[in-house]
Amino acid sequence: MPSAGTSYDWAWVDVAVPRMPGRLPGVSMAGFRQRSPALWDIRMVAYPFVTLFVDLSDTETVVYDARGRTRRGSVVAGLLPGDFRAAGRRVECLQIRLEPIVAAAVFGVSAELSGAVLALEDLWGRDAARAEDRLRATTSWDERFTIARDIIGRRLEARPQVDPEVAHVWRRTLARRGRVRVDGLADEVGWSRKRLWSRFRSQLGITPKRAAQLVRFDHAAHLLAAGHGAAGVAAESGYVDQSHLTREVKAFAGLTPAAVAEAPWLAIDDVAWPSH
């Protein structure tokens, strides 16, 4: 989940990525180890995947503030979490991004996850502590990535998947960077617009239209971070004009396009998530 703000120095953070990414479709991972004793506080920005943060810190712990509610340790951030911040010092964290169609099976409560940040223990019960213990038993990121794949993979095998039609619509939305029409997608899967809207929302916790807007925003945010001007980004991303882009960016991030372009997380996005 990208972050916003301009004061964080990523030179103090070691970033690890899997040597063999993509072994679980719809799942990507990165490990973060902060070496600075200074307290950091980062504002998070909406991202079109559900994000699992596994806290592996030795002494300190990551503190999350979601709309005024504080949580510590390992959490799951659903789509559109709103005002969401993370803070800590000398922390270590495994971050796992899951496509909504994968998260629906891994967590089984996609509708409840929409707009929420929940403790992993509330979703997995005792399995959350067991997962943390397995991951803490090694300091090797390669081994941690392997363990995490095993944990996620087992949960995927044990739980029902979303409807193939819902999965198709999500993948089309992602592939076309949000530039889709709901009626057209409904026709592709042979469903009525009403049925698609209902099934998509019940299984992924978000409407097809909102999902398209979120994916489009994410694409625009990365273009802004790459140095493209707002007017050009608006045209390339399918917004009516620059004012339309500004309204959408403020709606999703609470920031101006210029502020999103300077988000510190986006500065290392290609490092942590090379397949973005």
List the helices and strands and how they pair.
Layout lengths: L2 E2 L8 E4 L10 E8 L5 E5 L5 E6 L7 E4 L2 E4 L2 E3 L6 E5 L3 E7 L1 H8 L2 H4 L3 E3 H5 L1 H11 L4 H18 L5 H12 L6 H8 L3 H12 L3 H18 L4 H8 L4 H12 L3 H5 L2 H4 L1 H4 L4
Antiparallel strand pairs: 1-4, 2-3, 3-10, 4-9, 5-8, 5-10, 6-7, 6-9, 8-11
Defining traits:
alpha+beta; 276 residues; six-stranded antiparallel β-sheet
- Please give the alpha-carbon distance between the first and last residues: 12 Å
Examine the coordinates and then state which fold CATH places here, giving the name of the CATH topology of the largest domain.
Jelly Rolls
Taking the sheet with the most strands, its summary is: 6 strands, antiparallel
CATH class of the largest domain: Mainly Beta
Please mark out the parts with pLDDT under 50 across 5 or more consecutive residues, or reply none: none
Number of helices: 14
Q: What would you say the CATH architecture of the largest domain is? A: Sandwich
Question: Shape, please?
Answer: globular
Please indicate the percent range of residues in DSSP E strands (runs of 2 or more). 15-25%
Cα Rg = 18 Å
Number of domains: 2
Q: Average pLDDT value?
A: 88
The main sheet orders its strands as 2-3-10-5-8-11
Query: How many strands appear in the DSSP assignment?
Result: 11
Task: State the helicity in percent bands.
Answer: 40-55%
CATH superfamily of the largest domain: Jelly Rolls
The oligomeric status of these chains comes to single chain
**H/E order of the elements?**
EEEEEEEEEEHHEHHHHHHHHHHHH
Alpha-beta classification: alpha+beta
